[in-house]
Specification:
Helix content is about 30%, strand content about 30%. It is of the alpha+beta class and about 190 residues long. It is flat and about 55 Å long.
């Protein structure tokens, strides 16, 4: 629906953006189908944005939203993820994020997650390496916050990416594959003929 707003003595019609917090969807205006229709519109718009801006990653054959995709969806639904706390320990960091409804300031979801210095990734050649440098703890701390934010948003929003064809599991929650097949060595180029 459009609202009228007075700017410099003119009446300007302003389109209101549909916002929807998932728990409201099924009862919006007392009509569950209307709520599902609105959620489907948000899912379609989300799909366009995520694909155009590369806000997802393919893991184990499925597309998973990255944190930027979850934050975009949160904004579309009138919620924001806010870090509540981050705590260091001898192994890394733990973080808690709360999802806040912008219209009321109400906390509607929260999640905790961690990032440990001992996490390893596997190179294409099969060797393992430490993902986080203990000398630069801010990157491990930041990942703990990122993981808790995507998890907190997913707890209330994950069904909407599903409507758009994405997995409801955030990319940051997906385990990294340990048994990666090493890439084939590049084929040598033939020498140019002189």
């Amino acid at each position: 629906m459009a609202k009228d707003e007075i700017l410099d003595g003119e009446v300007v019609e302003r389109e209101s953006l549909p916002t929807l917090v998932p728990q409201d969807a099924l009862t919006e205006f007392g009509n569950p189908m209307r709520g599902i229709a609105r959620a489907s519109q948000i899912a379609d718009a989300l799909g366009e944005i995520v694909r155009a801006k590369n806000l997802s990653v393919k893991i184990q054959g499925r597309e998973h939203l990255k944190i930027e995709g979850w934050m975009t969806l949160g904004a579309m639904c009138g919620v924001v993820a806010a870090s509540a706390w981050t705590k260091p320990d001898e192994n890394g960091y733990a973080a808690r994020t709360e999802v806040i409804r912008l219209a009321t300031g109400e906390v509607i979801s929260a999640a905790e997650s961690r990032c440990d210095f001992t996490e390893q990734l596997q190179r294409r050649d099969g060797t393992l390496y430490d993902r986080w440098d203990r000398n630069e703890p801010h990157s491990c701390m930041s990942m703990a916050q990122t993981r808790s934010a995507s998890k907190a948003l997913a707890q209330v929003l994950r069904w909407i990416p599903g409507l758009a064809g994405f997995s409801g599991t955030p990319a940051e929650e997906m385990p990294r594959e340990r048994n990666v097949t090493p890439a084939a060595p590049p084929t040598p180029r033939p020498d140019p003929v002189s």
